[in-house]
Specification:
Layout (H helix, E strand, L loop, with lengths): L31 H4 L14 H6 L6 H18 L4 H14 L4 H16 L3 H14 L3 H16 L4 H14 L6 H14 L3 H15 L3 H15 L2
Helix pairs in contact: 3-4, 3-5, 4-5, 5-6, 5-7, 6-7, 7-8, 8-9, 9-10, 9-11, 10-11
Amino acid sequence: MQSKIKLTKRQVKEDRFTTFMLTSKDKLQGELEDNWQYYVIGLAVVVVLIWALAWQSDRQSVKDFEAVEALSRAQSNYLSGGDKQVAILEFNQILEKYGNTDAAGSATFVLGNLNLETRNYSEAIRYYQAYLDFGGDDLDRAAAYAGIAAAQEDQGMYAEAAANFVKASGACHNSPLVPDYELGAMRNYLANGDVAQAEARLAILDEKYGDTEFVNRGKRLLAEKRSGE
């Protein structure tokens, strides 16, 4: 990035800027449009508590306040039907103007999502990595790892994608998305021909989630791989 991004490790739950949702592939083969999915992308509403910031004005600089307002406007414009490329420009402007604020961290993560949605994989990975380098809470760090993995998977970088899905799973053990991350790791290990690692991830799924649909899906992935050999 052109501007330096500085994130603090303090994250306020009421100020969470994205809801991370992940759906997984059940098949390793098929048309690109059938296989494509937006891992945890679905830009959710950025909850910006302007009045809360006003009450805490003794601890908020004018620049911080302006940055949050700019983030709120950019998110609102996009969610009301704005063009993705225009949204990318708006969020980049936040980085350029408010690069040393927490709002810039939120904008960085959203830029990763937007670039993944538009399949600009190199930029998506760059923004997700920038978010990881400078901070973020466990849930959103897991989402960033999964975003990187999704970009790598769609480029056929299966070994790298599997490794990042494993990182996503380990980054936030309490996340309800851990089973999906594990299935993502399995899927990519299998695509890369590493059955042993896929079996290891299935064992983890089985230990944690027992007789659930997640485990059944993992078993189906293995069965499909073996039947095709």
